[in-house]
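Title: Prediction job returns without error message
Component: structure pipeline
Severity: low
Priority: P3
Assignee: unassigned

Description:
Job completed but the reporter wants confirmation the result is attached to the right record. Sequence as submitted:
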Amino acid sequence: MEHRQLGASGFKVPVLSLGTATFGGEGAFKGFGETDAIEATRLVDLCLDAGLTMFDSADAYSAGRAEEILGQAIRGRRDRVIISTKSAFRVGPGPNDVGSSRHHLIRAVEGSLKRLGTDYIDLYQLHAFDRTTPVEETLGTLDDLVRAGKLRYIGCSNFSGWHLMKSLAVSQAYGLARYVAHQAYYSLVGRDYEWELMPLALDQGVGCLAWSPLGFARLTGKIRRGQPLPETSRLRHEDATVGGPVVAEDYLFRVLDALDAVAGETGKTVPQVAINWVLRRPSVASVIIGARHEDQLRQNLGAVGWELTPEQVARLDAASETAAAYPTWHQRLYAERNPPPV
């Protein structure tokens, strides 16, 4: 398994990570999967055999149950794995059971440590930006937790460009631990990351951990023009957050047609091609894959160890291109001053 530097840090991570949103299957996460501790242990076994050592979770996944199951699955081999987890989403009814305040973050980290059965977390990320808490308070708290040895590195997730840049500026101004990772949605049918966050990541040394590289299950190869959704597709789930943003049907099938063609040429599957495309993008350090069962995991692991040709990448780029938001579209008109990210 290839390893890459995580942003401007000295930490190296595998190019594939296993997401644990499928662990537990409680509440809104039932649509992702219902992996129990026995199944999770088997998935971890397969990952470690393939060189995938990084596992991503969050305190909000199945109300903390995902972290508990991951903790059980890695028991006795903590030194062989990299744990990343997150907080910021609501985890209780109280006014302080959400966000990035000092009060909530300290409780959240302590809770995650207990559920995971470890005394430190390799990468701790804010699951979302909290505009109600001063950035200085949030970063000061995270810095204290890093200095206490409870966190090794910190990152963020789902931040806007100004959220991330302001945070990095505060870290620099006060000598605080800085974000080395940004966990962001990025796929062939979700390329908004490229508009502002990718150039920022390259300029500031923030590695991208790409989540949902299959576009919320749209690029699994099971969706076909004129056919109903598969019975097991999470796109059938009543919780809209499971299906992500709306994707126009004509655009989706244009991308799927290109993926089908490239898959036929490479002898790989549609999801393997889709994941490999994300892996080749600038600033991407690791792609977070998910799996309900062993077969899905084995297939996703097949996304590494080979490369798309430049011509195949160009065809996928063209098929998935969309109009950029302002001011990105205007900046792209003047490539001499704003060259594309590499």
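Comment from assignee: result matches the submitted record. The chain has a mean pLDDT of 95.
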